[in-house]
Structure formats: C-alpha cells, structure tokens
C-alpha cells in the first residue's frame, strides 16, 4: 500500500469517527501531506474532495495535463470559458457527497473556494481540519521523523557556521549570508535567518539588518532551512567578547524554563500545561512581562503548524508530535534571549532533534 493510500485510509477512519461526510482541501500543506505533492494554486478553484469511499479533483483544465503526471485520482475538469460550477456538481455526485451534512474545509484555502463549496451544499454545516487531516499530520511517522532529524543536523552545521563568523564590525546581514551559504552546502534551502544583535535581540522576530556587531553585544540567532520537503528551526545565543550586564542571570532563567518544559512534556499532557511550566519559571524570577510569545509551535511540512503550545491551548500532546520549546526574555533597549529546540514526543518524554548544546557561545572581541 502506498503512503497516499495509507493516509487516505487513516483519513477516512477519522472522518467516520467525527461524522464527516466530505473533506475539501486546496493546494497547500494539507494536500501535500496527503498526496506527496500539490498542483499549482492560483485564483482558479482547484480542490481535492474526499468522500467516505471515493475522492476526486476539481481541476482547472489549464493545469490538468501537468497534474495528471503526479496522480491517478479522477479529475472533474473545468475550463475558463465555462467556470467551475458544473464541474463541482459533477465532482460531488461522483463521490456521493451531494447530500453531505458535515463538511471539513481546509482552513488555509482561499475564502472564495470555500464559499463555492458551501454554496453547492446549502444544507451542510462546516468545520476545519483539526480533528481530521490536522490530527493525523500532528503525529509524525518514521519517514517524517528521519527527514526532520536530517534537517535538524543540517541546522546545527549552519548555526555553527554563523557562530564562527561572529566578530565586531560584521553586520547581521553578513552573518545571515554565511548561514545561508552553509545551508546550501548541504542541499538545503534557507527558510529564515534571524540575526538580532544588541538591542535588536529584544525584537523576537527582528528583521535582520545592517547593524554591525559590537563588543558586549548579546546576539540571538534563529534559523531554519528546508530539504526533502521538511524544515528545521533552532535558536541559539552568543555574546561578543563578554556578556552585557544582567545577561548571565537571564540566560540561566531561560535555560531553567526550557528544562521545566522538557520535564512537563509527556503524552496525555495539555499543551497549555507545558507552556505554564516554562512560563512559571520566568514569572517567578520576575521577568514574566518580558516573555511575550507562546512557548512553542508544531513543525512538519510547515515551520508553524499544530500543535501550538500556548497558555490557553487545550490540545493534548501525544506520541509522535513534533514541536518547538522556545521560551524567551526580551528587555527593550538592552538585549533579548531565546533558547529553542525542536523535539519529538516519545512515550517517555521529548527527544531533542538537534545535537548542538544550548550553551552560550562567546565570540572573540
């Protein structure tokens, strides 16, 4: 049985459990997870429609020939001069979904695509993919783990290259260039390279710029690359010559927060409780107002995907879920500090994908 066949089988089991009659996916990560590819996406409605027993593509004729090389799923084609309405009705009939009562829509598809589907099913109620495709995507299989692990080790090498390039007078952008080049050496495409030096580190999503590093700077490096369809993500800290005043205390607090989250993350635990384990460490140390974001996010085909580890998330963690643990403290005008690792949750707790320690790197001044 192919991977697509296995995933369709598992999806239909989830549909049966949730009383779902029809799942509709647009070109994007959900479709890519299910099929191993997705057709070109533009303003023309292109939808994969999965019923209880059959599936079909609503396919723009313009893209049909190219897509046919990737799949043997049946097409209901439509041309620009006719529009998609008749083909959509044909597709619903073909998979026995004209009377669908509960429809699951890809939450990332275009709004006009979603309204087109709902307009053809006026009696249906709709939901999004959290309990169907989303639930399945959160639990990574061995093949997905292998690709995520591979990318984490490439990320380690890119981080080490960036750390080795740190010195006074070099700009954030020049450090980012070194990191991107290292990703390329290993066949990975850079996804993002955040280099925040000195006061810029206090912006969690700083736009890497022309500021030149200075002695006494704390430097946040948050990077990720992509190879074989999967990404990486990691944050490490460095100082130039010596740490700024108060840095060592803050670093120790954030490291304790990481350790608390790692200890709390177990199958059956709510995501909000893992967030609380880290957040309480920082709050009790007097820095609660400076931890300004969620503890973590899932990682898979997308850099940010469920589960999200927030202070309100009711998601229950399970074996095979992959997510970040990344507490931080950001002191405006002074420095920011974030330590981030990606973990896969095992029966006995989290396995960190990176092999690079979270120790502070001290660059020469």
Automatic annotation (TrEMBL):
Keywords: Hydrolase, Metal-binding, Metalloprotease, Protease. Residues 7-107 form the Creatinase N-terminal domain. Pfam families: Creatinase_N, Peptidase_M24. Residues 147-345 form the Peptidase M24 domain. PROSITE patterns: PROLINE_PEPTIDASE. This is M24 family metallopeptidase. It comes from Hoeflea alexandrii.
